[in-house]
Amino acid sequence: MSKHTPGPWEVQNMTVFNSGCMFVANCDGLGDVDRIEISRANARLIAAAPDLLAALKVLVDNGGIGPEQMFRDARAAIAKAEGVPA
Question: DSSP letter string over 4-67?
Fold first, then answer.
């Protein structure tokens, strides 16, 4: 299994950046407004993927931290994916 590029990732409009890597989340075949909004949502989800994976691993493994911290990490990852403040 190949490893993913670790976070943190940052979103700028529809582009996702991390230490020398760049991905463009682009959807074709949709109306302009829909395409832009869907592309931005995809970029946020891509950027949040390492955080979501880490939060899920902690929930599954209980990584030695309390449930309060697990829920804070999970909420922060969800907020990042949805583009809202944690």
Answer: PPPS--EEETTEEEETTEEEE----SS-HHHHHHHHHHHHHHHHHHHHHHHHHHHHHH--SS-H
